[in-house]
Amino acid sequence: MVPSREEAERLLCEGEALHPGPWGNHSRVAARCAERIARACGESADTAYVCGLLHDIGRRFGTRHLGHVVDGYRYMLSLGYDEVARACLTHSFTTMHLSDYVGKNDLTPQEQEILEEAMQGLELTDMDRLIQLCDCLAGADGVMDMEARMADVERRYGYYPEEKREVNRRNRAYFEKRMGRDVYEVVCGGEDTL
Q1: What does the DSSP 8-state code read for residue 64?
Q2: Taking the model in full, what pTM does it have?
């Protein structure tokens, strides 16, 4: 279950008011990318938009690293938005290993347990992969070259696992094959540009 687009936008604006930062615009860019790719693949553009818009909603609770994943997951579950909760959980784990997270592990032992339990046996869906791809395409100021975005994250945090890079590249190739078009043509091309 996902909220309406209007409710998702309200939740994002509310979150930005609580904890302002570039994460809000990054989320908007990810949402527009997800919507366009989903539409080009014949999938639900509304679901993709909402999941992209709220994938980082855990940032509403303050400056946290890995904690934002658990915060967003629990918050969306509390509202009954299970599919969005899943996007909050999976967007940071392209390989589905906790070591995949780029940044500080600032989880409490209880949060670590919640995260491990939620991820146990979880298999990625196309929607999970789509939000991961769009997270890797979205900067706060617009669509970024995926390689430049990964390099930017590496500069900020000091590392970026090669396996994670490869999964991001495979996600891109997978969606490009499904669309029969270059991902940048879909998210930036034509009259409807970001």
Answers
A1: -
A2: 0.94
